[in-house]
Design a protein that fits this description.
The protein contains 5 helices and 2 strands, in the order βααβααα. The protein is mainly α and 146 residues long.
């Protein structure tokens, strides 16, 4: 059976697009439940070996960490830059947005970290290129209303 290919960056961008239309706020249980369901399903599929994350690299993992922790989306959906982080970085001086939802998904993060640690430099470079392509494709689809 062939593994399903998943793009973590595209998933995060879809969450942001969905959240921008409904309100990416803690009080919105529809957003919280949707994200939890999608990411829990991804973790389960990864553990079973059913999926491959094509853009798994440190930058996409950092974006996921920041998203889960409630950090602000740094870019504008309509003018995305492929080589830039999607979220404010987790560091001193930056803090999560009070109103944004948060999710505890430590086991998913640990699983992804372990996968990255086993990747070759060439695979990491290809994953970074896939991340940048996903951002460009997503921006183009928004621009043309796809």
């Amino acid at each position: 059976m062939e593994k399903k290919q998943v793009c973590l960056t595209k998933l995060l961008l879809c969450f942001e697009k969905y959240g921008s239309s409904l309100g990416m706020i803690w009080e919105n249980s529809e957003i919280r439940d949707h994200v939890w369901s999608e990411l829990s399903g991804l973790e389960k599929d990864l553990k079973q070996g059913n999926v491959e994350i094509i853009d798994l690299c440190k930058r996409s993992l950092n974006d996921l960490r920041a998203f889960l922790a409630g950090y602000r989306f740094k870019q504008c959906l309509l003018c995305l830059k492929a080589n830039k982080p999607l979220y404010l970085p987790i560091r001193r001086g930056n803090s999560p947005e009070e109103s944004r939802p948060r999710w505890e998904m430590n086991s998913l993060i640990a699983l992804l970290e372990a996968m990255i640690s086993k990747m070759s430099p060439a695979a990491l470079k290809a994953a970074l290129a896939a991340r940048e392509q996903a951002i460009s494709d997503f921006a183009r689809s928004l621009k043309f209303g796809l």
